[in-house]
Amino acid sequence: MIRSFADKITWLGHDGFRIDAGKTVYIDPYQIEGGPVADVILISHEHFDHCSPEDVQKIQGPDTVVVTEKDSAKKLTGDVRVVKPGDTVDLGDVKIEAVPSYNTDKDFHPKKNGWLGFVVETEGVKVYHAGDADFIPEMKNLEVDIALLPVSGTYVMTADQAVKAALAINPKLAIPMHYGAIVGDVQDALNFEKALEGKVDVLVLEKG
Fold it and tell me: Which pLDDT belongs to residue 181?
C-alpha cells in the first residue's frame, strides 16, 4: 500500500515535493517549471530555496491555501495561514500538522525561529517532511508511514545522521531529499539507501 501511495509523490528537486492524493499538495517548491494548480502549498521556512514567491506563483490559484511560518508569510500573498510547531490545519481531505525543524550542531536553522517540518495525512497515509533539520529528539515521537529526510549535510543532517533519524522514526518508507541543487549529490541519497538496506525501505526518486 505504501509503495503504491509513493507513486503519488513527485520529487521536484532539492526539498520540493508534490503529493497528488485527495488534494494537490506542494512542499517547498523551488526552481520548478510549473505544474497542476495547488490546493495546498506548505513552506517550511524563509530561506530562498524553500520560500520562493516566484515558484509559488506558478502553481497558486485563487483557492490555494498556503501554510507556513511567520517569516515566510511576510513574503507571500493569498490565503496564507501562519502556524507554529504543534499547530494543525484541517482541510478535509488533507490534514497538516506543523512540527519542529531545526539544527542541533550548526546555526543555519535555530530552534527559536519556530521553523517547520510537516506531517501531511491524506488517504490514510502520513507523510513527514523534515524541512531543513538535523536529527532532532522530536523525530523519535513521530508515527508516520513515509519520511522525507534531508541527506546532504552542510545545512542539514548528513546521510549518516539521516540513517539514524530513519531508524528512530522507523517509517514504512524513507525518501531522501536536500541534494542535487544547493549542496549534496545523488551519492548522498545512495549512501543513505545502502546503509538502511534490510532495516528501512528506501526509495530514491528521480526528479519529476
Answer: 64
